[in-house]
Amino acid sequence: MTTIIIVGPSRRKGLFKYATTPPFGLAELSITLLFSSSHLSRINIHIMSPHNDAPSPEGSYTQRLNRLSIGTPSLTPGRSLYSTPDYSDSFESTSASSVDDTMHRSLTPGVYVPTVTFFHKETEDLDLPAIAKHAVRLVEAGVAGLTTQGSNGEAVHLTHNERKAVTRTTRRALDEAGFQYTPIIVGCGAQSTRETIELCHEALQAGGDYALVLPPSYYRPMFKSESLIEFFEDVATASPIPVLIYNFPGAVSGIDLDSDAIIELSKHRNIVGCKLTCGNTGKLNRIAAATSASTPSDTGSGFMCLGGSADFTLQTLIGGGSGTIGGLGNVAPKACVKVINLYMAGNVKEAKKMQAVIARGDWAAIKGGVVGTKSALETYFGYGGFARKPLPRPTPEEGQKYAQDFKELVALENSL
Questions:
Q1: Quick one: pLDDT band at residue 32, thresholds 50, 70, 90?
Q2: For residue 48, what is the enclosing H or E element?
Q3: How confident is the model at residue 195 (pLDDT cuts 50, 70, 90)?
Q4: What distance in Å separates the CA atoms of residue 17 and residue 113, rounded to the nearest whole number?
Q5: Quick check: 230 and 206 in contact, CB under 8 A?
Q6: Could you give the 3-state DSSP secondary structure of residue 19?
Q7: 272 φ, ψ (degrees, to nearest 5)
Q8: For 73, how many CA atoms within 13 A lie in the half-sphere containing its CB?
Q9: What is the pLDDT of residues 219-277, one digit of tens each?
Q10: How does 44-79 read in b/e, with b if 16+ C-beta sit within 10 Å?
Q11: Which residues, 6 or more positions from 179, have their beta carbon under 8 angstroms from its beta carbon?
Q12: What does the pLDDT look like over 164-179, one tens digit per residue?
């Protein structure tokens, strides 16, 4: 199978897929066209070599991807399109099927869970069966979508190949469980514009639908005032999948994008949302209002203004937000979804009561980080394991403390 993907950097207002006999002497050609409501501003053509009628072995990344790029006028007036061919040879495919099965998966208001990455306890190798099992458990609980390679996914501990394996495994698990239309957002943050774009391309090849991008921070003292705006515009212009801005000051040397910056960036055709882990609900309200963000009761413009933590889910909804991307959903997905359902049903009193339990549970998750979250999963659900070194493994006493901190939340989860 040879696959050609033609991608327009829009919010993917439509999709066209075409298969035919190619002029290259190969067996089959598939063309996928993602286009905006008005016009294509960029075309990326991906040609994937055939697999010689044999499936690639698990973990194989040897199939090379050649890419042609055809540029049309820039999305942003007065700015040149960020060129990708210079490093196209470095991209590798994870599987032809992930591209062949490309479809439009919309982001809808609700709960998105940044999934934990599981490792074998003895070797720290990826535990792919646990990753698959966990992904299905979350979606069966009613969440709107998943995020791989987020902060809870230990993206900074993974190689590029491991990142692709996690996303590919998640996509396959959801497809096989009947959740083909559940979207996957993939964390694609890196310190250079070049590598960030590379991660966006790899996310597409692994089955991801959207990219979640942190601002770079290592060279923060040398940034000019416009550096971060240019970074996000360049990434969004070159990315083959739509981009969400990830505002998490604690992870990026205190960089905190203000509402003016995010509202300005939201005008880019390929920037479709934001995740605000800063916890600033005033900022969220300003962005949601300025972008006519989607809410559970109104599709609005389609822009997704998402809170970055479960402990202000209700506040996000009241402020006009679209939902949350929150790590607590790894432990209590049904409870996180229930808060939104109660609010939408007009049962604000019960929603407030449940939000209080979730906020207490989320404080345990915030204090314990991914170490505490994995410990709680191990205690209450029989899987979780440990984070990769140099993160510490909890002592028995610490494990008991994590179990106690999450006890109320897990009781609520199990009652639903």
A1: very low
A2: strand 42-48
A3: very high
A4: 29
A5: no
A6: strand
A7: -115, 5
A8: 4
A9: 889 999 899 999 999 999 999 999 999 998 988 888 999 999 999 999 999 999 999 99
A10: bebbbeeeeeeebeeeebebebebebebeeebbeee
A11: 136, 139
A12: 999 999 999 999 999 9
Question: What span, in angstroms and rounded, lies between the C-alpha atoms of 128 and 328?
Answer: 21
Compute the average pLDDT of residues 328-346: 98
Cβ-based neighbours of 99, under 8 Å, separated by 6 or more = 3, 5, 30, 32, 46, 48, 93, 204, 205
DSSP letters spanning 267-285: TSTTEEEEEETT--HHHHH
* 275 is annotated as an active-site residue: yes
Q: What is the DSSP string of 110-145?
A: EEEEEPPPPB-TTT--B-HHHHHHHHHHHHHTT-SE
The per-residue pLDDT of the chain, averaged, comes to: 81
CA distances to 57, 338, 409 from 416, rounded to whole Å, are 40, 8, 11
If you compute the radius of gyration of the chain from its CA atoms, what whole number of angstroms results?
21
DSSP alpha helices (H): ranges in 246-395?
Answer: 259-265, 281-291, 313-318, 333-344, 348-381
Task: Locate 87 and state its tokens.
Answer: 């490093």
Q: Is the pLDDT of residue 284 over 50?
A: yes
How many angstroms separate the CA atoms of 40 and 129, rounded? Answer: 39
User: What pLDDT shows up at residue 83?
Assistant: 31
Cα torsion angle, 277, 283, 284, 287, sign? negative
The residue with tokens 């694609």 is: 188
Model confidence pTM above 0.85 = no
Contact 225, 85 (CB under 8 A): no
Choose, from 275, 283, 338, 374, the residue flagged as catalytic: 275
- Cis ω before 390 (30° cut-off from 0): yes
To 10 degrees, the CA torsion angle through 135, 138, 144, 146? -30
Tokens of 172: 């396959």
Place of tokens 């692709």: 164
